[in-house]
Amino acid sequence: MTRTSRSAALLLLLTGCAGGLFRSRDVTPHQGDFTQATLEWKTLSFDGETVKGRLLIGSTKEALLVDTRIIEPISLELDDVIACDTGRALGYVVMDVMAPTRQPEHVLKLAPGAWYGKDVSLFLFMDSPGQVLPQCFRAELVYRSIDVVNAGRVAIRAERDAVAP
User: Fold this and answer.
1) Residue 1 vs residues 8, 9, 88: alpha-carbon distances, Å
2) H or E segment to which residue 12 belongs
3) What pLDDT was estimated at residue 17?
């Protein structure tokens, strides 16, 4: 995807509606304390704009209802994005998306001790005039299940991929 088409897609995505439309009407999520899920993250790549990684979600206390599509920003949110070298907060892209209606086959009841994993891609930074893409960043990835807001969180770190000569 070219930068121009990515920018156009971003503008289209920014016109989406708030996440409340994507929650099931038969489940009212309750506020969690980040201990309902254990998260593990492995960074697979970071090109300066998009970080790709493998997210594992484990239920700790009681069963969680997991939307297996793991859509950002509905299921995932980044907090405290900072540059590794300076410790300064970084501005990053926050998108609001229109997601297809969740279907019953998208819902997984994750029992305590069980794990669910998925490869995810998070578009964070846009190469634009006056914007220097970070070489490395650290952040906190927050997970929301269908039934628990703030179910879990994990620290992530990504360094830009080496460019072949």
Assistant:
1) 11, 10, 29
2) helix 3-13
3) 35
Domain ranges of the chain: 3-159
Q: Is 116 exposed, middle or buried (0-12, 13-18, 19+ CB in 10 A)?
A: middle
73: cis peptide before it, omega within 30°?
yes
- Residue keyed to tokens 């594992």: 56
At the second CATH level, the architecture of 3-159 is Sandwich (2.60)
pLDDT block averages, 10 residues each, the chain of length 165: 44 36 47 87 93 94 90 85 93 80 90 94 86 90 89 93 59
Report the SS3 class of residue 5.
Answer: helix
Which pLDDT value is given to residue 69? 87
**Residues 6+ away with beta carbon under 8 Å from 105:** none
Host H or E run for residue 71: none
Specify the pTM: 0.75
Going edge to edge, which strands form the sheet with 37-46? Answer: 37-46, 50-59, 115-123
Question: Other CB atoms closer than 10 Å to residue 34's CB: what's the count?
Answer: 16
Cα–Cα dist 44/161, whole Å: 9
As to burial, measured by CB atoms within 10 angstroms (0-12 exposed, 13-18 middle, 19+ buried), residue 80 is exposed
